[in-house]
Amino acid sequence: MNDDEQLLYKRLIELSNRAYQNNIYTFSDFLSLSQQEVMYQAARDKGFAPISYDLFGGYENCERKMVRFGSEADFGYDVDFPIKCIKVEPLAKKFAKEYTHRDYLGSLMSLGIDRKNSATSSWMAWTLTSMPTNLPPITY
């Protein structure tokens, strides 16, 4: 394991122990496929808390996923993953050109929106090229 993988390994063990000791759900950042493999290795470590965990990325068969430590059986209540989907579309489709994932991602990044928003302790993920179209609109 390289240094980044070792840091992630220790962080995941720490998150599992925090969830177990404090009886609260904890969440990782979004993990790539290789980072998910580090997660599975950490789960076999003797320092990993005896607590349930599951992975979810916002929709079925996504590549990048978060880990949620804890379950309803562990804590007696359920908490959803802190993932919010956004839908971006032009106001007048007949005047809009065809935009790519890169165009949308670049626009969001130029607004100062980051994939991980530490101010609210929540995460935002976007995969605009493969996002399901049957999502309900978000209303506030």
Descriptive overview:
- It is a single chain.
- The chain is α+β, with helices and mostly antiparallel strands and 140 residues long.
- It has 2 domains: 1-80, Ribosomal Protein S8, Chain: A, domain 1 (2-Layer Sandwich); 82-140, no CATH class.
- It is built from 4 helices and 6 strands, in the order αβαββαβαββ.
- The protein has helices spanning 3-22, 33-43, 72-75, 101-110, and strands at 26-27, 53-56, 66-69, 83-84, 116-117, 122-124.
- The strands form 2 sheets. A 3-stranded antiparallel beta sheet has the order 1-3-2.
- A hairpin with a 4-residue loop joins strand 5 and strand 6 (122-124).
- Helix 1 crosses helix 2 (33-43).
- The protein is elongated, with a radius of gyration of 18 Å.
- Mean pLDDT is 82; it is low at 117-133.
Radius of gyration: 18 Å
Low-confidence stretches: 117-133
Q: How many structural domains can be distinguished in the coordinates?
A: 2
Rounded average pLDDT: 82
List keywords for this structure.
single chain, 140 residues, alpha+beta, Ribosomal Protein S8, Chain: A, domain 1, three-stranded antiparallel beta sheet, three-stranded mixed beta sheet, 6 strands
